[in-house]
Amino acid sequence: IRELMAVVKRCRLLVTNDTGPMHIAAACGVPVVAVFGPTDSHTTAPYGQERSIVREAVDCAPCLLRECPIDHRCMTRIPVDRVYEAAVQQLNGLSGRRGPSGLSGEDRTGQRDQTDILSGYTIFLDRDGTLNPDPGYIKSPDQFELFPGVSEALARLKRAGARLIVVTNQSGIARGLLSRKDLDAVHMKLKRLLDGAGVTLDAIYFCPHHPDDGCECRKPNRGMIDQAVRECGVTLDHSYLIGDHSRDIKLAKRVGARSILVTTGVVSPQDAERLQASGEAPDWTASSLAEAADWLLFDANRASGQIGGRHVAHS
To answer: Please, what are the domains in the chain?
Structure first.
């Protein structure tokens, strides 16, 4: 143990999935990237290292089994990029804008490090078709799964300092297809899945009304956004809205938020053309939430004056 302590104290950063060295490093003041598989991060992670926890949310973890009876998915599904980003975040906290291996403040996408670039910003997120596949009306947690890459994209935005608020139309309640209790259970699963990537939502707002009710909260009406302004202190000129439907883009225009249309949901090329023709085109169109996060971080960097007007190309 003495030798381990001596080695750890010489580290600039420790990446490990062993809770023993994690706690030694934390006690020695050495930054940690704590990779968790079957172990419960809530009860065994080092104190004060919450931002550096990397884990994949799977239904069978945490567990206490010595041998995995299936496929070690709690470890094998953790992408290398997520560990890399956590390491960059920890190293940036030590030395300003230098990354590992002399990257000098630029990550592998060529963008500058994103630490705190979104501090003071709020990102409004549509739910169905944006965060998760939309089969119609999701009535139970069993029907709810995130799109691949969503957790990682939101983790990047959260690490950059953004507040994340979900705004979702849920007329299935008015139609009698699900109850508020059912919706709460679905949102509990959403929170649990995001928790696995270290992401905490700041709020979830939903409209339970029928489209014919004429309420003020159903998108593209601005009721849910106005509620967030009152309750969360949102500054709308420092906000973005990401959604998969024309009503999301129309809502963004109404409240003065920057808008990103993701093509993972119901939007068709014809919808995009109609938005363009009506003067309500989104500020950006992305093929996934990960691509939306790339552009959003670039746009915020540009607005802050940290980078010039060069354009980021997406394949």
So the answer is: 2-102 (3.40.50.2000), 122-304 (3.40.50.1000)
